[in-house]
Write a structure and sequence with these properties.
Elements lengths: L2 E5 L4 E3 L5 E6 L8 E8 L2 E8 L7 E5 L1 H4 L15 E3 L4 E14 L2 E11 L5 E4 L31 E4 L4 E6 L7 E5 L5 E5 L7 E6 L1 H6 L3 H7 L1 E7 L5 E10 L8 E6 L5 E6 L4 E12 L13 E15 L5 H6 L1 H5 L3 E5 L2 E7 L19 E6 L3 E3 L3
Parallel strand pairs: 2-10, 11-17
Antiparallel strand pairs: 1-3, 3-6, 4-5, 4-8, 7-15, 8-9, 8-10, 12-15, 13-14, 13-16, 16-17, 18-19, 18-22, 20-21, 21-24, 21-25, 22-23, 23-24
């Protein structure tokens, strides 16, 4: 067989980093030779790539990440009824069939499906990305829930207000997690089973109404915390995430934001200090012709479209250096939601700069101020 796969991406890879195949062919010297790469997602061919060989060698390096990231989106967080749900939209399974095309008696001839990667089954990609200095092909293995980690790099425990929701995500390529405990002080707990199937990234959503349903809310308030425990099939705790609960009243309205982090999981943070709301008004007008025998109440300049854009500036309580560095993920995330009593509302952060302050450059504690807009506009009547 002419095609050989020299190197290939890891079986589990972030879709937004490079996913490079190094391929060679014994026919690379043929006239008008090109490599073919047919990419299959969920069993369907979605793309055919064609590349000439590199000059002076019989190999080609093909990065399929520009194709794969088009088949990755994200999963909404409202999964309270089952506690845990697979992130079906945040994962794509694929394989690649390599072939070649070259002239035979002056006629371009295609030889497809000469070598498959992987040779059987599929590989997986996820809605994640790692910085230039951090990325290695096997980096997803560092976030395996088997090692007790979740898909968040938050440096400090999370504190919520009574009535607020909590979300966390975990990566479980081996299907280790069998159940989830929401535990408070003493024997107070609620267990939910997990069905992993072929999915490997999961959301855990804990709505306050869930705690109320199972009479855990009063215990969580009195104890000041509850724990989210991930357990294996013999009820051993693999990972524990503590959520601190504050019942103190706030002087200002609290803005709780949830965002997709670079690991493909969800992070959350409360902005509890003073906020400022403003409205941008965009009016489009036309001018009518002045009528004969006009009246002074005739309208000449007329608004035929009025668009309102709501912008809100919010401020955090004091945050440490490490939290300030972690919060850059909020400013750079493409997906951010504002939690309200009516549900999650999509918003967009409008700030274009973020200063990461550290103790050596100034104060050790900082406030974070940012602006966001709702992803929708409001409108007024037209005449």
């Amino acid at each position: 067989m002419s095609i050989a796969i020299i190197t290939s991406p890891n079986a589990n890879a972030p879709a937004y980093n490079q996913m490079v195949f190094n391929v060679s062919s014994t026919n690379a010297g043929q006239s008008n030779f090109q490599y073919l790469a047919d990419i299959y997602v969920s069993g369907t061919r979605v793309s055919r790539l064609a590349f000439p060989k590199q000059p002076g060698v019989n190999t080609i390096q093909i990065d399929i990440s520009p194709v794969m990231k088009n088949y990755i989106t994200y999963d909404l967080l409202n999964v309270y009824s089952v506690i845990s749900a697979a992130n079906a939209n945040s994962q794509a399974d694929y394989y690649v069939q390599f072939g070649e095309v070259y002239d035979v008696s002056g006629i371009p001839t295609t030889y497809a499906d000469l070598r498959r990667s992987p040779s059987s089954g599929t590989n997986s990609v996820y809605n994640s990305i790692f910085d230039f200095e951090d990325f290695i092909p096997a980096i997803m293995a560092d976030y395996n829930v088997l090692d007790g980690v979740i898909l968040s790099e938050r440096p400090e425990a999370q504190t919520i207000k009574v009535g607020e929701s909590v979300y966390l995500s975990y990566y479980d390529p081996d299907g280790i997690v069998a159940s989830i405990n929401v535990a408070t002080a003493g024997p107070n707990r609620k267990t939910s089973s997990v069905t992993s199937g072929t999915w490997k990234v999961f959301n855990v959503g804990i709505d306050w109404s869930f705690l109320v349903t199972y009479s855990l809310d009063s215990v969580a308030i009195s104890a000041g915390y509850y724990d989210i425990e991930l357990l294996n099939d013999v009820d051993e705790v693999i990972s524990t995430t503590r959520i601190n609960v504050s019942s103190c009243s706030d002087k200002y309205e609290v803005y709780r934001l949830h965002w997709l982090n670079n690991l493909g999981g969800w992070d959350s943070f409360n902005f509890s200090k003073e906020h400022l709301a403003s409205i941008g008004i965009d009016r489009t007008q036309f001018k009518k012709v002045l009528p004969l025998n006009y009246s002074i109440n005739d309208r000449l300049k007329t608004n035929y479209q009025t668009t309102l854009t709501d912008t809100i500036e919010i401020n955090s309580d004091w945050v440490s250096d490490t939290m300030a560095e972690w919060l850059q993920g909020l400013l750079t995330s493409p997906i951010v939601f504002l939690e309200k009593s009516t549900g999650l509302i999509a918003i967009n952060i409008t700030d274009t700069n973020y200063d990461i302050r550290k103790f050596g450059n100034g104060r050790q504690l900082h406030n974070l101020s940012l602006r966001f807009e709702y992803s929708y506009n409001r409108y007024r009547q037209s005449l």
